[in-house]
Design goal:
The complex is a heterodimer of chains A (410) and B (462). Chain A is built from 16 helices and 12 strands. Chain A has 410 residues and is an alpha+beta fold. In chain A, a hairpin with a 7-residue loop joins strand 1 and strand 2. In chain A, helix 12 crosses helix 14 and helix 12 runs parallel beside helix 16. Chain B contains 9 helices and 30 strands. The longest helix of chain B has 15 residues. Classes of the chains: A alpha+beta (410), B alpha/beta (462). The interface between A and B is medium-sized, with 18 and 17 residues.
Chain lengths: 410, 462
């Protein structure tokens, strides 16, 4: 048997539960380029950090030197325009600024913080809903419904429509997976789903244009700041992005968090006694088990040199955030889960102009979710370790997390 | 230095820090964090515990923060004897004693000088004393100015369009107060960032309704019969009626108290080596006197070993930490202070940030964004290498350019970048004012190659 290329092993579902030994192997070749048309894979902390701030790196796939038959060479004319996560400045900056003007400082400095009470109520409601059961699936009963409810409220999408948009979100998320991306079918399915989701959101957006409410869809469609307005298509692709990014990653952050805490019960105990510890725990989780494992969407617009190797212009670059987060050149004892670390500048939210837009919300959601689970589940334990995983190698997390406990505390 | 002396010093030595502001506090915290258990004395001429200054020209003037509540957060308990409200007036190097304004004397085994700078006052004393004439450096200055701005002056007159002057003008406009800014150079910020960027800043002033007068000097401040300022006279013979004048002519280093001490201290600051040890006036390094913050000037390998004085918040923190570490560490464990200069400013809703030493730049190139949109990255070149960069609302790229500075990357920047516009294809002269002309308060002072250097003549601003 010959060894499969390392990258194939990483995307191979069989290795989803614990990719970290593969990442360790990966870091031995800081610039890995295994196959002719394959990406250049970067896995060391400082290299990733450098490239995230490098203006020769583009997020716009039209800068790829497209090989014949490349799945990405399809025409873009039929679908929604790319959202800001797939754009470079100045367009990226303009769209992100407009989106941010209804989300964070300086225009809306209190939007997220003012949701604290509401987040706590949603969490309490979900935990109360466990009822007399002494066994739950953390994913289906908690970590998924919580951020979905939150992002629906924030955007102004009816919560009861979740089954409808779920059917579109799944193929879009699958399209982000480097393993399935290679199939033109799944790529087409993702594009089609994106368009459908956009059309669904268009109904809401039209309604908000007529009758604005206190939600982000209303703000996006009625934006008229110094950057002008978003076009309708821009509103839709931004809304699709926020809806999906607003919960897909948080589900994994919360689930990875509960899994990690159950594997390190001393921190589960400490968190129960001191909910304030949730801040440090969530930061360490973002390092130790980041919900976005790698960024596969970057291209270089010039020949660039990394560790003496030249990456030619037009190449695809993968930045493996989860490998950088465990780089021993950056973090002492990197494979240890240690929320008491003083030095915790992880790559969990990326860095540079594309650093996670929703980070303040994700942090708050995860802090509240984990401290409440820790407080209310008496004597919780993992019923299955490792748990079954979702297929995606990029947005990596358990599909189910079955947890048993003795009592539900008030 | 015998190891047992250091052990003794760390255990029960006496460390005195003169200057109880950002650098002084961070040094004290570092000393304790690194295990210094001896006695620690903090001497400060202001009666307040260490507070933060950047908000004083921003949030405090707008009433969004109280001047009484900008105390610096404490990283840990420093267990110090505080001598606040008492200035140091002299230093006896041989006897290892600091003299205080109340005639008391404090003995030390190791001394850290972090006396910083003060606002340069209006040079004509009688005019400086008029009611309504302010400087802005301290918490008391900010409180007084805030009260006056609240009272709704008809017009505020700012002398000097450096960073502080521009931030004050910005705050005034945000409050709807009419403001005139007079600047001797051709544009605001020209001394710190050059004329190309200065032109953008000028446009920013004008678009925000500032009455900007460049290329002029203020020749006199006129008072009324009861001693209140009522007008400013300019070198172009114009007269501007005003109730408030803010003198924003940069800073003067607080080194007078060291006159005659034998330290290499003067109007350019206190010379020290890369390890923050002060030089005496002969250029010989001392081993028990250390310097940090705005008052220090130290050689920097990245910038041709020139002695740099930096009036930057980040420099005060970084240099204080290095100085404190070195004060209680043996030679081999000492660290150099090789911080890459960086500063930020916030004015007229724009976030300005810079790394490196822009005034060394001969040419500038806009590598990302556009000057007219006021969102850009400008890169400064000096003798074929990247020496500095500045961003307007584009901060997140700076880390990349800092690496270019650190590695002496070639200039002009010949590789493509995202968002490169036609205007950014070629470098243009950066447009710094002629250094031989008198100027006020650049935030970086390049002051020659050695503490005994006499090639450059220091020209205090007037």
């Amino acid at each position: 048997m010959t060894h499969a290329p390392l990258l194939r092993q990483i995307t191979d579902f069989a290795n989803r539960a614990d990719p970290y030994p593969l990442y360790e192997e990966l870091r031995k070749t800081p610039v890995l380029h295994e196959e002719e048309d394959g990406p250049y894979v970067i896995s060391s902390y400082w290299d990733i950090k450098g490239l995230l701030h490098d203006p020769r790196i583009s997020s716009d796939f039209t800068n790829l030197s497209v090989a014949a038959g490349d799945e990405l060479s399809r025409p873009e004319t039929t679908g929604l325009p790319p959202s800001f996560i797939r754009l470079d400045p100045p367009e990226h900056d303009r769209l992100r600024r407009i989106a941010n003007s209804s989300f964070g400082p300086p225009h809306r400095p209190t939007r997220i913080d003012s949701m604290r009470g509401e987040l706590a109520r949603i969490v309490s409601g979900l935990i109360d809903g466990f009822g007399d059961a002494r066994q739950i699936d953390v994913v289906d009963q908690f970590a998924y419904p919580f951020p979905v409810t939150v992002i629906c409220r924030l955007l102004g999408v009816p919560r009861e429509d979740e089954p409808r948009f779920r059917a579109w979100v799944d193929p879009i998320v699958a399209g982000l997976d480097p393993d399935t991306r290679t199939s033109a079918d799944s790529e087409r399915a993702a594009q089609e789903a994106r368009l459908q989701l956009g059309m669904y959101l268009n109904g809401l957006v039209e309604q908000r244009a007529r009758e604005p409410r206190d939600d982000m869809l209303s703000d996006l469609v009625n934006s008229h700041g110094p950057d002008g307005a978003m076009s309708t298509m821009e509103v839709l692709s931004t809304a699709v992005l926020l809806l999906i990014a607003g919960h897909e990653t948080t589900v994994n952050l919360i689930t990875n968090g509960m899994l990690t805490l159950l594997r390190h019960p001393e921190y589960l105990r400490r968190l129960r006694d001191d909910p304030g510890l949730s801040v440090k725990i969530v930061e360490e989780l973002l390092r130790y088990e980041p919900p976005v494992q790698l960024v596969p969407q970057r291209t270089c617009i010039a020949d660039i040199e990394v560790r003496g190797l030249t990456i030619p212009k037009g190449s695809r670059i993968w930045l493996v955030l989860a490998a950088g987060n465990r780089d021993p050149e950056r973090f002492p004892d990197p494979d240890r889960f240690d929320p008491d670390r003083e030095d915790i500048q992880h790559l969990g939210f990326g860095s540079g102009i594309h650093s996670c837009f929703g980070a303040p919300l994700a942090r708050l959601e995860a802090q509240i979710a984990l401290s409440e689970l820790a407080r209310r589940l008496g004597n919780a334990s993992l019923l299955e370790d490792p748990p079954p995983y979702r297929p995606n190698a990029v947005l990596r997390g358990p599909r189910h997390l079955n947890v048993g406990f003795d009592e539900l505390l008030p | 230095m015998p190891a047992d002396y250091l052990d003794w010093l760390r255990r029960e030595g006496r460390i005195v820090i003169v200057g109880a502001s950002l650098a002084g506090l961070r040094a004290a915290e570092t000393l304790r964090a690194e295990g210094f258990t001896g006695s620690l004395t903090m001497i400060g001429d202001e009666p307040y515990e260490p507070y933060d200054r950047p908000p004083l020209s921003k949030a405090v003037l707008l009433g969004k923060a109280s001047p009484q509540h900008t105390e610096l957060p404490r990283r840990l308990e420093i267990d110090a004897k505080w001598r606040l409200g008492v200035a140091a007036t002299g230093l006896d190097l041989a006897a290892k004693r600091v003299r205080l304004a109340d005639a008391d004397e404090v003995e030390y085994d190791r001394l850290l000088i972090a006396t910083g700078v003060r606002a340069r006052p209006w040079p004509k004393e009688s005019e400086a004393g008029l009611d309504g004439v302010f400087v802005l450096r301290t918490r008391d200055d900010a409180a007084a100015l805030y009260r006056r701005l609240r009272a709704g002056p008809r017009r505020v007159f700012v002398i000097g369009a450096g960073f502080t002057g521009c931030e004050i003008a910005s705050a005034c406009r945000e409050m709807g107060i009419a403001v005139t800014v007079a600047e001797r150079a051709g544009a605001p910020l020209a001394g710190a960032l050059g004329g190309v960027i200065g032109a953008v800043a000028a446009q920013l002033h004008q678009d925000n309704g500032v009455d900007l007068r460049t290329g002029v000097m203020v020749t006199a401040l006129e008072g009324d019969s009861v001693g209140r300022v009522r007008a400013a006279h300019l070198s172009d013979e114009s007269i501007v009626e005003t109730d408030v004048v803010i003198v924003s002519l940069g800073a003067t280093r607080n080194t007078e108290w060291l006159a005659g001490s034998g330290l290499g201290a003067g109007p350019r600051g206190i010379a020290c080596d890369a390890g923050c040890r002060a030089f005496d006036f002969r250029g010989i390094v001392t081993d028990d006197v250390f310097v940090a913050g705005d008052v220090a000037r130290s050689p920097h390998a990245l910038f041709g070993y020139q002695f740099l004085s930096l009036e930057h918040w980040g420099n005060a923190v970084a240099q204080a930490e290095v100085a404190a570490h070195n004060m209680i560490s043996p030679g081999a464990e000492r660290r150099p202070h090789l911080w890459v200069p960086a500063f930020w400013s916030s004015q007229f809703g724009v976030n300005i940030k810079s790394v490196g030493v822009p005034p060394m730049g001969e040419e500038i190139m806009i590598t990302q964004g556009s000057l007219t949109e006021r969102r850009f990255v400008g890169v400064y070149g000096y003798q074929g290498r990247v020496i500095a960069a500045v961003t307007f609302d584009n901060t997140r790229w700076l880390e990349f350019y800092q690496r270019k500075i650190e590695t002496g990357a070639p200039f002009p920047v010949d590789f493509p970048t995202v968002d490169r516009r036609p205007e950014g294809r070629r470098p243009v002269p950066a447009g710094f004012p002629d250094p031989s002309l008198p100027t006020h308060g650049p935030t970086v002072t390049l002051s020659g190659y050695s503490p005994a250097d006499r090639q450059l003549v220091f020209t205090p601003a007037h």
